[in-house]
């Protein structure tokens, strides 16, 4: 049975009724959208910790938070809570959310400062054996619950579940740099299954540390253009040399269109399609023929009931690594062919950097804002185009152009690919 | 019981524990007449025990040395168990089936380099500017491959690379909750027709000092050097990690029957929840879960408890289980196998599926506090109870 509340496959249409976002550009959708459409960069020299000896010293870290302890769990939770508070207010939902929570969160570990502090507590006489044997001798005497909470992967979702009264066991997930998109996909699936009329999709990443920078540096993934931080992230250009690591969070309130209309909620857009396909080629590199990314984009289009002519704008993954941008272009060309030239494609990461776990959801919010406002955010730092990547990147300056459907790409290490299609509310 | 096309059935069981490798070895173990005798290693770290990895020839499931070198034992174990599940389902070299197979992995983080961490902690006691020293040491000492071996989603990534399972790839996290959510998500997708076949599971390599920080930081680790005198039959006095790799192939009944697959069990219901455990709230929540997962308590003949081993919570769950499922025989997984964290619930489901398909009474997991079983079980309830948070239940039935 199809109705105005079901899609081309007879499934419940999934609406977005609330959005919240926080990045290095600021707090809130309005502030972020203003900065983003002004072509402003949030990338800066990192000062939160020493970057001496590091090959990359810049990032899009979020430094305006008031958190009880400087660790990835506190930072990620604080950002997620702010983004969710904003989204729920916009959706007009107060009290218990009473739907499932899908959280994209970074894998966390104890901070080095916490390890050092624990190491200091080891009595001189016990300073033998490996560091963990020493740590355990201290913890046996006196547990450290703050450290405990800061190293469990389930802490953030547990807190959010209490903050917002979500239902059931929250799902915490990681599909690397595609995580934000996967959180949304899980929410869409749950509504289509009919097991809930609403779902909260949250993605957050506050995990930038010296060790994180070094790890990505060892994989040659980060830009080293430290001298002018705001110019370092330059997707699709000839002189791109890696992504700029960043932090942020986003929340989307997903709701069956029927439920949204019934309660008189404002519909901000439709989450029309999701696609995914894993790549078995290599741990950090994509299949040379782009076939998994192509299958992912096609999967999202098919799920949305659209063909190649149905997409008006692409919010690119566009990390500014030599590898991703080349592969992403290959994949988009493979799907859209000659038509790709007429589709504007821009990368939010040119301004906010790569927010890793949060990227897919942050960029979904910006995709929906593109539909809502008729403004395409630019790709900044597009000064020296890569001649092998022929795209209309909305270079350097925003463009007023009405679009009713957006494709948002997310690709990550470990062969992770996820794409979303968002559309305007059906007339 | 209906035999609907979208019934979720288990057609492949890949299982590795301290007690053996593979479905057949575990079926033999579960249907033996004597209580299961755990294998406990007390020699790896002062004060703590662990149920160790059995001897494994990784090449049997990870043929390329290059692939083996890219992983540490946690990922190797998961990839190995995933391969066993595919083999058991008869799908191992079925390229088309693997290319459309969904993958959901419950994962924690990988092994840290203990010697590098120790070096840095020792240096930190000698220098004034610890951050600068840290950067210098990490820049020179960290191995690039170790990052990928630590990344949570790279267990799934390695399964895709080694076994070519590429329909989709999702990694769920959050300690025990990850394992519960993995099966809840997979079952819901198949039952709704969103997926036809899915590889689901998790792994834990237990003898890891860095892992102990997780439990000892809240005081729930068992630091008695593990029941050294008689490891059989003594309930743990806290969490003792147990090595486990448990992956299952789930399919819609239609999909399984169309390819003539052996169906071991149906996965009737899975659900998880969380919340306060104060003053009877845990028991209230367990009751609500049971109302949805196994409302007909009398039909449940076997309960496998996945309580983590923290004694107060384990006792509360046990008391509740004995009251609610009074006709069933209880088996306590942590005593025989240790606690598998993310792999705890996947292991419970694997054991439950073997139990309902074995056609024989299930051996006691401990000589003390468990009763012998009068007949082969047809219906099993399995649980997980996180050491910090999260509860889950699943009901499995003999394939009919």
TrEMBL record, chain A:
<comment type="pathway">
    <text>Lipid metabolism; fatty acid biosynthesis.</text>
</comment>
<dbReference type="InterPro" id="IPR020841">
    <property type="entry name" value="PKS_Beta-ketoAc_synthase_dom"/>
</dbReference>
<dbReference type="InterPro" id="IPR000794">
    <property type="entry name" value="Beta-ketoacyl_synthase"/>
</dbReference>
<dbReference type="InterPro" id="IPR016039">
    <property type="entry name" value="Thiolase-like"/>
</dbReference>
<dbReference type="GO" id="GO:0004315">
    <property type="term" value="F:3-oxoacyl-[acyl-carrier-protein] synthase activity"/>
</dbReference>
<dbReference type="InterPro" id="IPR014030">
    <property type="entry name" value="Ketoacyl_synth_N"/>
</dbReference>
<dbReference type="Pfam" id="PF00109">
    <property type="entry name" value="ketoacyl-synt"/>
</dbReference>
<dbReference type="GO" id="GO:0005829">
    <property type="term" value="C:cytosol"/>
</dbReference>
<protein>
    <submittedName>
        <fullName>Beta-ketoacyl-ACP synthase</fullName>
    </submittedName>
</protein>
<feature type="domain" description="Ketosynthase family 3 (KS3)">
    <location>
        <begin position="11"/>
        <end position="424"/>
    </location>
</feature>
<dbReference type="Pfam" id="PF02801">
    <property type="entry name" value="Ketoacyl-synt_C"/>
</dbReference>
<dbReference type="GO" id="GO:0006633">
    <property type="term" value="P:fatty acid biosynthetic process"/>
</dbReference>
<dbReference type="InterPro" id="IPR014031">
    <property type="entry name" value="Ketoacyl_synth_C"/>
</dbReference>
<keyword id="KW-0808">Transferase</keyword>
<comment type="similarity">
    <text>Belongs to the thiolase-like superfamily. Beta-ketoacyl-ACP synthases family.</text>
</comment>
<dbReference type="InterPro" id="IPR018201">
    <property type="entry name" value="Ketoacyl_synth_AS"/>
</dbReference>
TrEMBL record, chain B:
<dbReference type="GO" id="GO:0004315">
    <property type="term" value="F:3-oxoacyl-[acyl-carrier-protein] synthase activity"/>
</dbReference>
<keyword id="KW-0808">Transferase</keyword>
<dbReference type="InterPro" id="IPR014030">
    <property type="entry name" value="Ketoacyl_synth_N"/>
</dbReference>
<dbReference type="GO" id="GO:0006633">
    <property type="term" value="P:fatty acid biosynthetic process"/>
</dbReference>
<dbReference type="InterPro" id="IPR016039">
    <property type="entry name" value="Thiolase-like"/>
</dbReference>
<protein>
    <submittedName>
        <fullName>Beta-ketoacyl-ACP synthase</fullName>
    </submittedName>
</protein>
<dbReference type="InterPro" id="IPR000794">
    <property type="entry name" value="Beta-ketoacyl_synthase"/>
</dbReference>
<feature type="domain" description="Beta-ketoacyl synthase-like N-terminal">
    <location>
        <begin position="6"/>
        <end position="255"/>
    </location>
</feature>
<dbReference type="Pfam" id="PF00109">
    <property type="entry name" value="ketoacyl-synt"/>
</dbReference>
């Amino acid at each position: 049975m199809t109705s105005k509340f079901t899609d081309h496959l007879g499934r419940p249409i999934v609406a977005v009724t609330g959005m919240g976002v926080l990045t290095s550009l600021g707090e809130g959708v309005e502030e972020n959208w203003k900065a983003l459409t002004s072509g402003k960069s949030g990338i800066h020299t990192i000062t939160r910790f020493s970057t001496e000896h590091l090959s990359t010293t810049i990032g899009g870290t979020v430094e305006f938070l008031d958190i009880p302890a400087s660790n990835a769990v506190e930072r990620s939770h604080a950002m997620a809570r702010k983004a969710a508070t904003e989204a729920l207010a916009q959706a007009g939902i107060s009290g218990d959310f009473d739907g499932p929570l899908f959280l994209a969160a970074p894998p966390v570990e104890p901070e080095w400062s916490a390890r050092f502090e624990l190491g200091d507590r080891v009595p001189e006489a016990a300073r033998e054996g490996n560091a963990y044997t020493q740590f355990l001798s201290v913890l046996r005497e006196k547990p450290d619950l703050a450290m405990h909470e800061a190293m469990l992967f389930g802490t953030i979702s547990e807190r959010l579940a209490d903050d917002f009264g979500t239902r059931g066991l929250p799902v915490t997930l990681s599909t690397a740099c595609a995580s934000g998109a996967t959180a949304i996909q899980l929410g869409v699936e749950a509504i289509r299954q009919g097991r809930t009329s609403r779902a909260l999709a949250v993605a957050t990443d506050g995990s930038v540390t010296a060790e994180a920078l070094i790890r990505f540096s060892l994989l040659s993934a980060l830009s080293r253009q430290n001298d002018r931080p705001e110019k370092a992230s330059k997707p699709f250009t000839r002189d791109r040399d890696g992504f700029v690591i960043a932090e942020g969070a986003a929340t989307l309130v997903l709701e069956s269109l029927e439920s949204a209309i019934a309660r008189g909620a404002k519909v901000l857009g439709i989450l029309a399609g999701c696609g995914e396909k894993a790549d078995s080629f290599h741990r950090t590199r994509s299949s040379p023929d782009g076939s998994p990314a192509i299958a992912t984009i096609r999967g999202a289009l098919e799920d949305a009931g659209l063909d190649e002519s149905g997409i008006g704008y692409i919010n690119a993954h566009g990390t500014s690594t030599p590898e991703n941008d080349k592969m992403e272009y290959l994949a988009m060309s493979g799907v859209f062919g000659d038509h790709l030239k007429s589709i504007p494609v821009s990368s939010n990461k040119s301004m906010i950097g790569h927010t890793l776990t949060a990227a897919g959801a942050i960029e979904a919010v910006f995709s929906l804002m593109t539909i809502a406002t008729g403004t395409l955010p630019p790709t900044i730092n597009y000064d020296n185009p890569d001649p092998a990547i022929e795209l209309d990147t909305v270079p350097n300056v925003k463009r007023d152009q009405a679009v009713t459907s957006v494709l948002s790409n997310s690709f990550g290490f470990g062969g992770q690919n996820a794409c979303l299609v968002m559309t305007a509310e059906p007339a | 019981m209906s035999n609907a096309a979208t019934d979720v059935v288990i057609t492949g069981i890949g299982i590795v524990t301290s007690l053996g490798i593979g479905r057949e070895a575990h079926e033999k173990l579960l249907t033996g007449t004597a209580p299961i005798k755990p294998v406990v290693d007390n020699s790896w770290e002062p004060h703590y025990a662990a149920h160790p990895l059995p001897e494994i020839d990784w090449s049997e499931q990870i043929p390329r040395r290059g692939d083996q070198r890219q992983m540490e034992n946690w990922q190797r174990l998961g990839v190995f168990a995933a391969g066993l599940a595919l083999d058991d389902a008869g799908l191992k070299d079925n390229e088309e089936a693997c290319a459309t197979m969904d993958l959901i992995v419950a994962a924690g983080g990988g092994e840290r380099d203990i010697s590098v961490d120790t070096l840095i902690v020792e240096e930190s006691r000698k220098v004034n500017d610890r951050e600068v020293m840290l950067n210098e040491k990490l820049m020179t000492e960290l191995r690039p491959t170790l990052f990928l071996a630590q990344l949570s989603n790279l267990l799934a990534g390695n399964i895709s690379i080694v076994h070519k399972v590429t329909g989709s790839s999702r990694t769920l996290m959050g300690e025990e909750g990850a394992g519960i959510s993995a099966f809840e998500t997979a079952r819901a997708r198949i039952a709704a027709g969103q997926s036809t076949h899915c590889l689901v599971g998790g792994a834990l390599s237990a003898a890891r000092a860095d892992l102990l920080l997780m439990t000892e930081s809240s005081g729930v680790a068992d630091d008695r050097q593990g029941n050294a005198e008689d490891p059989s039959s003594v309930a743990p006095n806290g969490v003792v990690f147990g090595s486990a790799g448990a992956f299952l192939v789930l399919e819609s009944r239609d999909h399984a029957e169309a390819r003539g697959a052996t169906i071991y069990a149906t996965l009737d219901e899975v659900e998880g929840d969380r919340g306060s455990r104060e003053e009877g709230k845990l028991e209230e929540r367990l009751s609500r879960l049971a109302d949805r997962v196994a409302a007909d308590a009398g039909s449940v003949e076997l309960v496998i408890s996945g309580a983590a081993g923290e004694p107060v919570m384990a006792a509360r769950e046990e008391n509740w289980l004995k009251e609610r499922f009074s006709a069933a025989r209880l088996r306590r997984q942590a005593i025989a196998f240790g606690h598998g964290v993310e792999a705890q619930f996947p292991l419970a489901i694997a054991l439950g599926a073997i139990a309902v398909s074995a056609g024989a009474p299930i051996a006691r997991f401990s000589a003390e506090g468990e009763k012998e079983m009068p007949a082969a079980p047809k219906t099993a309830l399995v649980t997980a109870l996180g050491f910090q948070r999260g509860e889950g239940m699943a009901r499995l039935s003999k394939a009919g």
